[in-house]
Amino acid sequence: MREIRPKVLVTRQLPEAVEARLSSTYDVTLNADNKTLSKKQLSAAMAEYDALVPTVSDQIDAHILQTPGRQVRIIANVGVGYSNIDTDTARVEGIAVSNTPDVLTDATADIALLLILAATRHTYAAEKKLRENRWSDFSLVDGLGSSVQGKVLGIIGMGRIGQATARRARLGLGMNVIFYNRSTITGLDFEATQVGAIDEVMTSADVISIHAPGGGSSPLVNAGHIAKLKPTAYLINTARGDCIDQTALIEALSSNRIAGAGLDVFTEEPHIPDVLRKLDNVTLLPHIGSATLEVRTAMGMLAVDNLDAFFSAETMPCRIV
Ligand code: DGY
């Protein structure tokens, strides 16, 4: 008798090795075009498949989760962040949800560091000048950035990625680290001081790096916080676009109220406001924090580990709901 394999929909392309593993175990539908599915397609999938393997570009809201005739029993998200999934509704509906933490911690911290250095050394404006053929001569005074050694790095959200970023900045760059985290953090293997409020980070840090999960009803770093930044401060975000009031940040950058920013995430990805794209004092990346072949493969494999455990009634390695 032929064994019935669970039907799995993978919403976006994954590295080859992950797709091969999925195909060997499941009745899998892959997305060869790699185009984001519409809400209608996601709803239809909820009634047709046993499992979804989505990622950050799929908004799995209550409406989709409550699709009449829903068959999906597990959503194995490829990503550590899961603010794209309404986990409260998933819980009520009895749908399991998992994520892929740890495997992307170093890669994301590397990109945070890259943005800290790019922002403080004004590399976007420098490269643009060169590419536009406006670099006429070596100069000792043009385009000067700020050194990071001995400056204060303020981390907002001292979880795995916040810690990996802070460790690199402290031990690799010689920055002094302060951080805000909702719960108390002890036992760090590098020097860092916890402060009691986001405002304290805003008023004292030279570089602020956000490492919070996102998905809140309002931005964690709001216009009031941004107003408190030093005029020489740089803001870095590799977490989620909705962690920051993007409009207030754009205003602060456009008016040179702050020195600059480095952003890998945005509120309405992939839409980037024109005004932001035109600014020279911000380095912009298209959400590439975890974008290495090794890491994206590891994320995909971990999502499949979650699926395998679920369908064999074992403990899922990274179950959220
Ligand atoms: C994550 O894993 O959350 C990254 O942002 C990619 O989605």
UniProtKB/TrEMBL annotation:
Pfam families: 2-Hacid_dh, 2-Hacid_dh_C. Residues 114-289 form the D-isomer specific 2-hydroxyacid dehydrogenase NAD-binding domain. Transmembrane segments: none annotated. The keyword Coiled coil does not apply. The keyword DNA-binding does not apply. One of its GO terms (cellular component) is cytosol. Keywords: NAD, Oxidoreductase. Belongs to the D-isomer specific 2-hydroxyacid dehydrogenase family. This is D-glycerate dehydrogenase.
